[in-house]
Amino acid sequence: MANVSVYNMEGEQVGTLELNDAVFGVPVNEHLVHLSVVQYLADNRQGTQKAKTRSEVSGGGRKPWRQKGTGHARQGSTRAPQWKGGGVVFAPVPRNYSFKMNKKEKRAALKSALSDAVASGKLIVVDELKFDEIKTKAFVKVMNNLKVEKGLVVLDENDPKVVMSARNVAGIQTTLTNSLCTYDIVKAKKVVLTKGAVAKIEEVFA
Fold first, then answer.
1. What HEC string does the chain produce?
2. Rounded to two decimals, what is the model's pTM?
3. What value does the mean pLDDT take over residues 72-84?
């Protein structure tokens, strides 16, 4: 099992934590990680782009000139795609880009992302994150102590004081263990977990 250092809010090491290899030490499946990231991005696409085909643009009901004898190429409508103001060939229409992944695949992708974070040294464990009041400056100080400029902070429970303190910090995103996704872990430069968050993740995914 992998051992990681545990830090306090002042950035001092206060101990070590043994991570469960069933969650934080699995072989990294790059294909599933990629698939999970693509699914996340596809789910977030609006799919609202629209252009008109030749059947939807106005006008063009009459043949612009007779079939033969004019010297021009034959034309049936002024709203054909080659005409200015004509319809678009294979025009995009509103659609849903999302697709499904199996539950086991999602879990495997998340474990792979967490294991890669441990192996690459971008996972940081803190004993706790607690503030007496909502204070952005206090949160920034903690991140500076942990040497985290940009990253993901994973909490074991919804603490409004921590979430609100972090909300205006550029490059920092907070999430709960039940909302954790592969994309957020892969995108983050550093992943900061509380000891409680580690315990919850291991309880759910081990």
1. CCEEEEECCCCCEEEEEECCHHHHCCCCCHHHHHHHHHHHHHHCCCCCCCCCCCCCCCCCCCCCCCCCCCCCCCCCCCCCCCCCCCCCCCCCCCCCCCCCCCHHHHHHHHHHHHHHHHHCCCEEEECCCCCCCCCHHHHHHHHHHCCCCCEEEEECCCCHHHHHHHCCCCCEEEEEHHHCCHHHHHHCCCEEEEHHHHHHHHHHHC
2. 0.81
3. 93
